[in-house]
Write a structure and sequence with these properties.
Strand content: over 45%
Number of helices: 0
Distance between the termini: 48 Å
Radius of gyration: 17 Å
Largest sheet: 4 strands, antiparallel
């Protein structure tokens, strides 16, 4: 039995220690890969695009090295690719994102602002093209699952998805063909 499989290809470089890889597929064989790269006591968020034929040069999406964690990729209804990551700024973890319109990256958008940590996020696009962001957020010392929707022009207000009195962790998200969005998570309930 013979199976034809693609050969492995190194996307990162030896100058960094790399973690938390994410992959997003697009039209025409397009792929986007993203990861968190560490060197000199700081992290950067790196992305690399495969245009259907070749991998393009890696780009640093985080505006400066810092304390970054867990990058995820998604696509909005205008076809813009979003990279969203957690970053610790002034002692608090929040979610930040940038979108790529085919020519350049947008300014960094702060997506959460609570004074307690917002981490372990995921992205999914629904059948209407809305981009959904879910994450684990701590409020009053307890973690719950939250969601926001990007309609192509603006982000909705954050909504708490989980209702347990116990801690809820590490959400996953999926959307079906009829526009419904499903969120699953681990709970200590």
């Amino acid at each position: 039995l013979v199976d034809r499989v693609p050969s492995a290809q190194l996307l990162s470089t030896s100058e960094y220690q790399d973690d938390f890889a994410a992959l997003l597929a697009g039209p025409g064989g397009e792929l986007w890969a993203a990861w968190v790269a560490y060197r000199r006591q700081a992290n950067s968020v790196i992305v690399r695009r495969f245009d259907g034929n070749t991998w393009q040069t890696a780009q640093t999406v985080s505006e400066k090295p810092g304390d970054h964690f867990l990058v995820k990729l998604g696509r909005d209804r205008q076809g813009r690719v979003w990279a969203v990551w957690s970053a610790q700024v002034s002692g608090n973890w929040d979610l930040y994102g940038r979108s790529f319109d085919g020519r350049s990256w947008s300014a960094t958008t702060r997506l959460t602002e609570d004074p307690q940590p917002d981490i372990y996020h995921n992205l999914a696009s629904d059948s209407g093209g809305n981009l959904w962001l879910v994450w684990q957020g701590f409020r009053k010392g307890r973690s719950d699952i939250f969601a926001r929707r990007y309609d192509g022009a603006a982000w909705s207000a954050a909504e708490r998805v989980s209702t347990s009195a116990a801690n809820d962790w590490d959400p996953a998200i999926a959307a079906d063909a009829s526009g419904r969005v499903y969120v699953a998570w681990d709970s200590y309930d």
